[in-house]
Amino acid sequence: MKEIAIFDRAGRDAENKDIGRDIRIKEILPALEKHEEVILNFARVETATQSFVHSLISDVMRKYRDDALERVSFKSCNDTIKQIIGIVVQYMQDALDQEKR
Amino acid sequence: MTKYLESRYNYDMKIHIPNSAFLGNIDAFLRGFDPSSPNVLEITVNQSWLAVHPAVLSMIASLGLTVKPENIRCEKLQARSAGYIVRMGLFKLLNVSVDLSVTEHAPEGRFIPLTHIRNSNEATEFITEMIPLLRLDVEQRETLVYIVSELVRNVLDHAEAPNGAILCAQYFKKSNSIRIGIADTGVGIKTTINRAHGAKTDLDAIRLALTPGITGKTQRAGGTGENAGAGLFFIKSIADVNRDYFVIYSGSGFYKLLKKTSARRHLNADPFADRHSQKDNLPYWKGTVVGIDITLDQTKEFSLLLRAIHDVYANLKNKQVEYKKPRFL
Q: Is the backbone of residue B180 left (phi > 0), alpha (psi -120 to 50) or beta?
């Protein structure tokens, strides 16, 4: 199990999608390739933008499809961040669904 | 040394700062902008009163950065309120001295002076430092951080603007609102969108840019790993739910989200389905300008705003499909 503290990488405002991309490429995807589960810990993060969350997880969902949500979970999110993650997750599932159709 | 306007500069790029130009009445200001000769910038001003939206100042600063400081000519500032423009840092940013006959200063306000953001690190630094300047409550902070981050990073990602993004914001006590303006002199929305789509006009491109799921980076559903094509839709939606103005101007295209008259919280994916005004024949702005007002009295909790946006997504998409939910620990 790999737990990634978003605050330590992105700070109080998780808005820099370059950082989101780096977390995805350097930490999330390698952990999933090693069949580890990933916990994205948003403790102390106050704001996360849609762009940041998209950058963090969209390609993970594209690569691992339904399995991504079984293997990646989100910890200590405030209501706003939960909403943002929910939007991005739904958006990506819908996009992937469109590709299948 | 101050350079006064002289009649020989008849073929310069011209911009006039009127007595009033806010998002509700900005159209007249934009129509008067003359971009015909890009080497010299003439700034003329209303001599009685100056009260303008931060988007106007961001535009003037962006234009000014495209010419050499010695080729910027500004009319003498005589309006009693002219100190506002100086305090917002217009002439400092452009490295131009002005003749200001006004010594009276407005009281210290809550504002973010004109700021030049050229890269991701400067964006992060700016976002961290801007909140104390506006002295916002925690609840209002989230909304502002969100809007500014998405707007600035949009410019850095898409605009290819040599001068980056120019942004300023101000709190207006009378209306209890924050007004934000951001401008760039990059390639403009049409060029960006047409890398993956086929917009015929600047206004078509603006429409696509405001539609969720459309990005200039790819035609692929879901966007790229770094671009979802939802940033501007979110910002327009925040203004929409709050019943505030949102303006976007690029090339000769212009879109203004008008204030909602009802409290009904309904968002549209197609920006043309919203109550709005549009133009496709304004003087050509090489780049993009965005202005937004956030009335703090009306600002809903950000999570409620997002719930409304989420509902739009859900309604747009295939309602028959039950999607997996993310796991929250």
A: beta
| Closest-CA distance of chain A to residue B209, Å | 15
Interface of A with B in 12-31 (CB under 8 A): 13, 15-18, 20-21, 24
Instruction: Give B137-150 pLDDT, tens digit per residue.
Output: 777 788 889 999 99
What residues of B are in contact with residue A76 (Cβ under 8 Å)? 329
The strand pair at A72-75 and A38-41 is best described as parallel
Binding-face residues of A in 37-76 toward B, CB within 8 A: 39, 46-47, 49-51, 54-55, 58-59, 62, 66, 69, 72-76
Q: For residue A58, list chain B residues with Cβ-Cβ distance below 8 A.
A: 222-223, 225, 228
This model of the complex carries an ipTM of: 0.96
Assess whether pLDDT exceeds 60 at residue B22: yes
Q: Are B288 and B249 in contact (CB under 8 A)?
A: yes
Report percent pLDDT > 90 for chain B. Answer: 53
The 3-state DSSP composition of chain A as helix, strand, coil percent (nearest 5) reads 65, 15, 20
Name every chain A residue with its beta carbon within 8 A of the beta carbon of B156. Answer: none
Q: Are B196 and B108 in contact (CB under 8 A)?
A: no
- The string of DSSP codes covering B60-126 is HHHHHTTS-GGGEEE--B-SGGGHHHHHTTHHHHHT----B-----PPP--EEEEEEE-SHHHHHHH
Cross-chain Cβ contact B230/A54 below 8 Å: yes
Q: Tell me, rounded to whole angstroms, the distance of Cα A51 from its chain centroid.
A: 11
Q: How many CB pairs (< 8 A) connect A and B?
A: 140
CA B273 to chain centre: 21
Q: Tell me, what amino acid is at B135?
A: R
Least CB–CB distance from A93: residue in B220, B228, B324: B324
**Domain boundaries B13-316, CATH class:** alpha beta
How far is A20 from chain B, CA to nearest CA, in Å? 9
Contacts of B138 (CB under 8 A, 6+ apart): none
Q: B30-89 pLDDT, tens per residue?
A: 998 998 888 899 999 998 888 899 999 999 999 999 999 999 998 888 888 888 888 899
Q: What is the least distance, in Å, from the CA of A69 to any CA of chain B?
A: 6
* Model confidence, pTM: 0.92
Beta bridge partners of B257: B246, B276
| Structural domains of chain A sorted by starting position, each given as residue range(s) with its CATH number in brackets | 2-100 (3.30.750)
Other C-beta atoms closer than 10 Å to the C-beta of A77 total: 22
